[in-house]
Amino acid sequence: MSEKLAPLLGEARPSDSVAAMPLGGVVREYIRLYAEGVSHTARAKQLDTDKFLLFLKRYRRAQDIDCLKVSDWDFSATQRFVDESLKSGEAPATVSRRLATLKHMGRVLAERLPGFINPAREVRPPKQKQTRPQSISAAEVGAIKECARDRSSQETSFAALRNETLLTLFLDTGLRADELRSIRMSQLEPSLEWIKQVRTKGRQFRKVYITEQMRDSLALYLKARAAELQRFFPNLSAQIDSKLPLFISGFKASTSDPKSFELGAKSIWRIIRSFSVDTKLHPHLLRHTYATELLDVSRDIRLVAQALGHSDVRVTMRYTERGDEEVAQALEKARENKRSNHK
Question: pLDDT tens digits, residue range 184-199?
C-alpha cells in the first residue's frame, strides 16, 4: 500500500473493513494529497468532492457527512449525482469536471485499498458540444504587450519589469500558472534556452523551450532580480539562489524559507488581469492563445500536445474545433478554388 495514504488507511486490511471506513476521512486524505492549496485546479477538486459528499448525505439519508462509509459510494449513487446535477441546471462541462474528479479519486483509492472497485469508472459523462478554447487575436496580443512595456518604462520598478516578463513568458511558453510560479532557478538552463523538470498536472515532467526573443527579455529581468535580492541576501550564493523562485516577491518573504519568495496564485491572476485591453485576461487564456497560435503555424497537433504537456493528444484535439462561421467560410473558399481550377 502506498505510504502516502498510510496515515489514514494504515496497512492492508480485509475488504469488509475497507467498506466500513469513514468516507469523509478518505476524501479529506485524497484532497490533502492531490488538491491541497489555492490553485484553480485544487479549488475545483475541493468543491467537487464537497458537492458530492453533500449529495451523498442526502441520497443515503445520513445524519451527517461523517456518518457516511466507503460502502455508501457506489455506481448508482455516482450516476444519480450526475443526473441530479444536470437537472439542477449545472452546465454539462461542470458536471463532466465533477465526474472526472470522482473518477480520479476512485482510481487512486482502487490502487491503494484492497478490494475497492472504482464506483465512478463506468459512469459516462454528459454529452456536450466540443468547442475550441477561447483565445485572443494577434492584434490584441500586440496591444497587451505594448501596454506592459509602457507600464514598465513609466514605473521603472522591479515589480513592473517582473510583471511584464511574467506576461510575456506565459505567451512564449504556454505554461500553466501553477507551473510557472513554482519554477526554481535550478530549473533554468544557463543558456536560458530551456526550463527543465517542469511538473505537469498529471505529475509528470517535461522540458519547456524559451524562444530567442524571450531570452533577451528574460536576461534583463534576471539582472533586475539579482539586484532586488540584494535587499534580502547581501552575499547571495549560487546554492541559495538555485532554490529561490524564478519570479520573486518580497512580500512577507523570509530568508530562511526560499518558498516564501514565491508569488501567490491570486497575485499572478491579478497581475495578468491588470494587462487586459479588450478581453479580461487570465493565465489560462494566455495558454489557450499560445496553443491556438502554435497549431495555426505548425499544423502539427502532436507538437502542440508535447509543448503543452498533454499526456493524451485527445485533450489537445479541442484546439482543432471550428465554429459554424469558420466552417462556412472554409467551404465557400473551397468552392471558389474549385471554380478557379476549372476555368
Answer: 999 999 999 999 999 8
